[in-house]
Description:
Blueprint: H1 3-14, H2 18-25, H3 29-43, E1 48-51, E2 54-57, H4 59-82, E3 90-95, H5 97-111, E4 118-123, H6 126-135, E5 140-141
Parallel strand pairs: 3-4, 3-5
Antiparallel strand pairs: 1-2
Helix pairs in contact: 1-2, 1-3, 1-4, 2-3
Amino acid sequence: xxxxxLRVFCSAARQPTLGAAALELHLTPSAVSKALRRLEGDMGxxxxxxxxKQLLLNDSGRLLLARARALLALAEQARLDVMGERxxxxxxxxxxxxxxxxxxxxxxxxxxxxxxxSVHLQPAFEDAALAALARGDCGRCFRISTMKTTxxxxxxxxxxx
Length: 161
């Protein structure tokens, strides 16, 4: 069992299909499938019930998922400790790529005062970013706010500036 396979497993557990997990991880579906098969071999039991293209966690998979998340968190903390970043600010921000790009300069400027801070920007659609926030996979997320009007900037029919 290795951490890379556990990361793949956690992603596959979140996503409805192997292809969706592959997209999230920026891997090919065959690489995700191989990692899952390798992990199942290491565990000595299947972790998913496969139904067509869908992957559904079985009892063994649900048991491993809780442990895998804890192991990945411990591994990340160990990495930070060894690098001398104990107590450093570490934040994962999810959201649409355009918003992450748009606000990257402001985030970098805000972090200038904290040289040991690390920020990971995770591109995701709004619903996936909100779900990641709810699961605790990220600390913050960006989303596009709902506009109060359907008019464009400078419209004369409404009070839009």
